[in-house]
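User: My instructor asked us to take a sequence, write out its structure as tokens, and then describe one feature of it. I'm not sure where to start. Here is the sequence I was given:
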Amino acid sequence: MTEKTRFLFIDYLRGIVIALMALDHASYYFNSIWFWFNPIDPLFDTVPQFLTRYSSYLCAPGFLILAGAMVFHSYDRRVAGGASAWKTRWSTIQRGLFLVLLQLTWVNSCWGGFTRLRLAHIGIIACIGISIALLVLIVHWRWPFRLLFALALFAIHPWLVAIPYDPHIWWQQLPMETFVTAGKFNKYPVIPWFALCTLGSVIAVGWLRAWTDRGKSILYTFLLALACFAGGALVRLGHSYGNLFAHSGFPSVSYFLFQKYPPSLVHQFWAAGSILFFGGVFQIIGDRGQRLLHPLRSWGSAALFFYLLHIPILALLVKRGPLPYRTSGLDATYLGWIALLILMYPLCWWYGKVRMRTKNPILRML
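Assistant: Let's start with the prediction itself. The structure tokens for your sequence are:
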């Protein structure tokens, strides 16, 4: 498998993740279900609403897994090329801190159309930033040790969630909601998502280094996906450890209601398996689908740019503009989503070209 093919499927994979995220955000602004929908304890009145919401459950895991993969690739390539290990780590840490800064300033304020600055909140972009800054400190470990570390974090997290705390006492809220559980301060606690980021750095060893034969890479990717799905099924059928939602057995609807805030253990298994499955599919397609999948490649190669731009577009048009806010159903959601993807396609293609040519360090980090 050529170097071009390896990174092409990762762009496709990142592109499908960012497209599903845009669907969820279009739903957030147009779909009236959000007036009574509780993300912590979801209840859906129709199957289409259920599928629309749950398709976005792949987004955060996809971002973290692929971020971990690219941290491994960047570190390994630069150190192998003679760069200082410390300088390489510091460069990644700076990028992580930059993402945290973006979260606290641009991202937090753009959700409401820049009506206020909301510094006392962190979210997915900050979580990714913290995770890659931590990962670069251990990315030099051999992959079996990183895998064991990630699995240990998965195993420990359900126990940590059970620690009682008072969300009204700041010195209890900040550490718990930053690292362990979800709340008003943060829905994306670092520990479980950092575990997925670390797992991504392990998967990258196969994808970008060891599995040079395309057929073997596809086979091993699907086998890993199957192993993750099996692990998720075992955890879910156990009714206790790793399950934050009770269920009435397969194939009930409750069986498929996986906790995301914070992510339950079964969520981690199924999400990782789904990302691996799509990774295998896009490897099969390879460079033969370049024309048809060029939008995915454009969105995926400029994923952070897409993220930072599409939210204010929605917010300014809906919350502060002429379009109605949460008065419609899935019809307006999907129309808004398709229009947003069409708009972002040339913008991401253009920015990808700009980033390749620019020497500006900030633009290169977007």
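For the description part of your assignment, you could build on this observation: DSSP finds 14 helices and no strands in the chain. Try explaining in your own words what that tells you about the chain.
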